[in-house]
Amino acid sequence: MSLPVDHETVVPTSGAQWWRQAVVYQIYPRSFADSNADGIGDFRGIVSRIDYLSSLGIDAVWLNPFYPSELADGGYDVIDYRDVDPRIGTLADFDALVAALHAHDIKVLIDIVPNHTSNLHRWFVEAVDAGRGSAARERYIFREGTGPDGAEPPTDWRSLFGGRAWTRVPDGQWYLHTFAREQPDLNWSNPEVHEDFLTTLRFWADRGVDGFRVDAAHMLAKDMSEPLPTQAELDVLPRDGSHPTLDRDEVQDIYAQWRTVFNAYDPPRTAVAEAAVHSSRVPRYASPATLGQSFFFDLLLCDYDAPTYRRIVDDCLSVAAESGSSVTWVLDNHDTIRHASRYGTPYPGANPDGTPIRKHGGDWLLAGGDPTMIDAARGLRRACAATMLLLALPGSAYLYQGEELGLQEVSEIPDAARQDPSFFRNRAIEVGRDGCRVPLPWTRTGTSYGFGDGGAHLPQPLWFGHYSVEAQDADAGSTLALYRNALALRRELQGGEALEWVETGRDDVLHFRRPGGWQVIANFGTEPYPLPAGEVLLGSGPVGDDLPSETAVWLRV
Ligand code: GLC
Ligand code: CA
């Protein structure tokens, strides 16, 4: 696809359209910076690093859940949607954080988790106590079991973290949990659930939050009419909205309601859907009448391969254009093996839908995660090249804390220190997501490498100091310098949301033009590629007359 190059369109960085080409930096609050030496990151810690955030040149931060939680799933088990976990801070600390970010021209997105609550949420506690048939149970999905005495679960459904998707309460009924048993699914056929989330959205929007990242956005609407299907039937996700529990058309009615809340603010609050759906379905979530934007995980899931990247870029741009939205590009997040490690391990191969047949990098972790068994230097080289390509694409870019340091996945976490439920529930299949959630290294040495003064809630490896902010801050050749330079240049160069491919005569080299003379060449291959005439603005690694293997460059021509 070659969209016409639009030199005229000025890109808004403020006002209602600020999100279209924003760079959003994801903060996992428990692992960013710890202000009170309890080993857990907190809001005051983030405020203490505000100059660092500002120095990156980002437009917004997205905060992973910070609500009161028993941490059965890293905070995605929410006990109270309108409060802050005391280990992370208070509502006053939240307000101070928002004020500090806004004072630095950084917008704030928060995570909203509507598919399930924590089992300690007052609604669920009430539901268990109130017994079968009660109004309190109608806020969740309770069913009678099967078999003698109903001792077998209602269906054979599996939790996404492994094991059964149903758990029995003392009076014999079962409740549905798509994720861990501590995360009971809400019943979105109940108007009370709708009302409560509208209240939550207003609560945070009134406090100055600029937007919301909507967790598991495709799961809320469920057809629970009998007879319930089997797991084998659920395994197929049709593209017409007819799946019993995923991506049903009526989930958009919920987001249309949310949109009226968003649009009551000036500028309207934004939202981005985390929805694992076929790309043909994405425009429903990314419509201005619903959430407005949706993640595209295609680059995060694919191999480091030029033709694949090119196909994905074209597909995503045209899908986003269908609803008038922009693409959200992403290579790393809190659920993924860091791309600097992933790209140093062999790709496991893809399913017909383009997703890897097993988690990319997962084989290495399962085999023990021996750091000598991956090519970390190559992983980082490819990661930097891929990031430079991503940052030059039209649309918004999501970065995950620590990727700007070139952090590798931490593979050497002892089993006893692991926290992720997918490790405990799915043992033989995956090691879980703790390795990308280890607290950040700020200094070369010292207690928890400057994360705080009292250790770190997930153990940091000895090599962490080498990747610290301190070690990279003044080094013009560091990964951190590359990210800062790229983000500063991107601000200068960013124009209309157009992209035009330039043929290179090589399958392993991609070249595109953006409006205003910005050109990008990425060499995915092993042979150098002669650069055309033009001013080299930035390279993901050293660049001469030729573009070396696994390197990307921005040019002005
Ligand atoms: C999303 C989150 C993930 C969480 C899950 C359940 O996929 O990104 O971290 O475990 O939802 O809330
Ligand atoms: Ca703390």
Question: Keyphrases for this structure?
Answer:
binds calcium ion, binds alpha-D-glucopyranose, five-stranded antiparallel sheet, alpha/beta, disordered N terminus, 557 residues, eight-stranded parallel sheet
In short:
By secondary structure, this protein is α/β, with parallel strands linked by helices. 25% of the residues lie in helices and 13% in strands. The relative contact order is 0.12.
**Main sheet strand line-up:** 9-8-7-3-2-1-11-10
Secondary structural class: alpha/beta
Multimeric state: single chain
Residue-averaged pLDDT: 96
Number of strands: 18
How does this model look, in words?
This protein is an alpha/beta fold. It is built from 16 helices and 18 strands. It has helices at 43-48, 50-56, 91-103, 122-130, 191-206, 231-234, 251-262, 282-285, 298-301, 306-323, 339-342, 362-366, 376-391, 421-425, 469-472, 479-493; strands spanning 23-27, 60-63, 107-112, 142-143, 166-168, 174-176, 211-214, 270-273, 292-294, 328-330, 396-400, 500-501, 509-514, 518-523, 529-530, 535-539, 546-547, 551-556. The strands form four sheets. An eight-stranded parallel beta sheet has the order 9-8-7-3-2-1-11-10. A five-stranded antiparallel beta sheet has the order 12-13-14-18-16. Helix 5 (191-206) packs parallel to helix 7. The longest helix has 18 residues, at 306-323. The model is unreliable at 1-8 (pLDDT under 50). The chain binds alpha-D-glucopyranose and calcium ion.
